[in-house]
Amino acid sequence: MLLPLLLLASLPSLSLPFSIPSPLPAPLPARTSLFSSTMDPPARVAPSAGWTPEWENRPGLAPEEFLNSDPAKPDIGASIYECPLTLWDAENIDLAEGQASAKELPHCPAEIKASAEDNTAGRKYFEANGTKIRAQLREHGAVWLRGFSLPQSVAGFREVHEALGLQPCLDPLHSSGLRKFASERDALYEEVNKPALRGHYIGLHSESTAKRTAAYAAFVCFQRATESGGRFLVADGARILAEMDPALLRKLYERKVRISVSNLDVPPELPRALKDGFKKVVAKAVAPKFDMDLEMIYESDGKPGRLQAVEELESPINRHPVTKQPVWFCNAHNHLRYLRDRRPCGVPEVGMTDVFFGDLENLSPAECAEVKRASEACITSLPMEPGDVLLVDNYRALHGRDVFEGDRFHAVSWFTWDDNEKWRGDERRGNEKDGLNKIVNQYMDWLPKDF
Question: What architecture is domain 4-9+60-446?
Fold first, then answer.
């Protein structure tokens, strides 16, 4: 998440008391954690899924066609809404009742498959069925629009979400550089298709921090992976809540969690004064650029000299703002170091993450394994093909991405609250976030395909 911290920390303007090696591409060493041996690294095994629909092998457009925007449409990227603030309603949740009610919910996602008549109708289909689709989105947590021809291009995809009445907003981590715009004027971000990360499994997460959370998302496939893999993952946060061991769920809820989003390793033998100086530089000059509430903490994972950027205390369970259904609202499946060390992972150490209890105690291996089991039992591993769109209620469903080979092009637009002005707020895009986004994406594009 904070991959550019190391890059930025090496800039001369920050006047660090020592030098940090620049992140040149090189073979990655075997990673270790509190739960992995330095003598015998754990085996990396691709995670499973509860549901795995089959591919249909539908063709799509060539890149020079699907990337075309409609010049007649206004530029919505320049004055796009800021991602809205996270809505927390996590106090006094009856966990047993929440688990019981979640078991009664329908499968996520709902699937709507296009007929020939639907595709002939084009935008008119979505205008006529928008209310129904939005209702299914609320009921199921996600809707898979499968086999539609209109959203096979940037211009057509915009027609779809405009017809549905969705209001675009910035990515909650716009300044992190994880995503660059595929079409800025259409408020469309490129998904994590970067060749350098194609061997990295992206675990389940909401597009959310303790500070900002998009209300909805629409993921679109323009080009499936040309060789293999690249399935899109989606899971219902309410069903994960129902699936998880009640004792662990209560322990996590009562103790809350903190998420470490980056590691910066400094020489452990440095004098405390120099370490404190470096910590202050990062805290004041770098961390604020990420629009997150972060605390810089040394050695929270036990590694000497390691400075970690750690999010503030937050609840792993939240009530949905509209339905009030308790849901698993936590990115632990994606961020737990124990799980990352045991599955395909393609990020350098600076970008490695972890999840702690609120007092910074580690989850045990058994507790990490239960988060994995409960999460993956609820995954639907989608074979998204050109024109497929997955609409996501970002407070209900979590998403991720499997590894892939070859070239792949998926994209996403984020949406704010279109039916609640108070929740949406009046913040508009601030250009001060753009510089860091562009720096990091240039760095990631520069890396070789298998760094």
Answer: 4-Layer Sandwich (3.60)
